[in-house]
Design brief:
With 161 residues, the chain is mostly helical. The protein has 5 helices and no strands. The protein is elongated and about 55 Å long. Bound molecules: zinc ion (ZN) and fe (iii) ion (3 copies). One fe (iii) ion binds next to α2, α4 and α5.
Length: 161
């Protein structure tokens, strides 16, 4: 990795690994969620994530590189943490609150990654690729906002009770 191009390619592979790992982890999180809206949010984001992975495949094809070959250690850590939490959590309320907390960590990581990738793509003059990455970045922001709202409604419910 000697230049911005090499670094950009590395980042794309890292994101590809992150999305792949998340696709494997989200079904378990959806299964553990008891609030129907939270469950639906995980299921919807799973479908979105599969599409994000495809988008990265398209981008790598355009760049004539393979998307594989890199493991995102950060996503592995985040998923490990979420898995550990799911084993320890007792009761629906604690489970749901903790699932939102773990999922938002994931979304924030992805937002950081795609934000950087969009910037690199623009810097390297890849206009179409920057647009595709921006699309995913917008979806990650939406997913995070949705989780924020779910956390908020939970807090409001508790205040009312
Ligand atoms: Zn890496
Ligand atoms: Fe994603
Ligand atoms: Fe990573
Ligand atoms: Fe995401």
């Amino acid at each position: 990795m000697k230049d911005l191009k090499g670094l950009f390619e590395h980042q794309l592979k890292d994101l590809y690994s992150a999305e792949s790992q998340l696709i494997a982890a989200l079904p378990k999180m959806a299964e553990k969620a008891s609030d129907s809206k939270l469950k639906k949010a995980f299921e919807d984001h799973l479908e979105e994530t599969k599409n994000q992975k495809l988008r990265l495949e398209e981008i790598c094809e355009q760049l004539e590189i393979k998307p594989t070959g890199e493991k995102c250690q950060a996503m592995a850590g985040l998923i490990k943490e979420a898995t550990g939490f799911m084993e320890e959590a007792e009761g629906d309320k604690v489970m749901d609150a903790g699932l939102i907390a773990e999922a938002q960590r994931v979304e924030h990581y992805e937002i950081a990654g795609y934000g950087t990738a969009v910037r690199f793509a623009k810097e390297l003059g890849h206009v179409d690729i920057a647009k595709k990455l921006q699309q995913t970045l917008d979806e990650e922001y939406d997913a995070d906002n949705k989780l924020d709202k779910l956390a908020e409604s939970r807090v409001n419910q508790k205040a009312k009770a």
